[in-house]
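Let us practice reading a record.
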Amino acid sequence: MTAKPHWLTEAEQQAWKGYRLMTRQLEARLARELSQGSGLSMQDYDVLSALTDAPDRRWCAKDLAAHLLWSPSRLSHHLDRMQRRELVNRVGCPQGRGTDVVLTPEGLAAIKAAAPAHVAAVRDTFIDRLTAEELATLTRLSATVVEGLHEPDQTGAQPLPTRGPT
C-alpha cells in the first residue's frame, strides 16, 4: 500500500519556490561576478577558501571532498584543472596514505585578489538586503535545516572553522 502524498500547502509551496528561485539567482549572480572579476569559478573559490582555512594550507583530498560535499571523482577532475593553472598542487600525505591538496602561492594570490570583490558582491546581493534580525533568523533557520540533514560522517573529516576569505 502506497502512502498518500502529503502535498505542500499554498504557503509552503510559495516559501519553497521562493527559496529555490532565490538560491538559483543568487548563486548565478555571485558566480558570474566572481568569474568576470577574477577568472575563478565558484568551485575554484570553494577549494581555495577551504585550503586557506586549513592548517599549513593543505588538506587530505578525501577529507576536502567530504567537506565540499563532492565525490572524490569530481574533486579529482576539478583539481586537475586547478593544478594546470598552478592554483594547487597534489602531494603525498605525510602519513603515507592518500593525497594532500596544497595551496600554491599562485592560488593564495588568486583568492586574496578575488576575496574583496567577492565579499562585496555577497554583501551587496545578500547581507545588506537583510536586517540584523532577519540575518539572525536566517542563521537559526539554516542551522535547523542543516541539523535535520545531518548524516553520520563516514570519512571522519572534521569541518574547519571559518577564518579566511569566504
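A brief commentary: Residues 24-134 form a domain with the Arc Repressor Mutant, subunit A fold (CATH 1.10.10.10).
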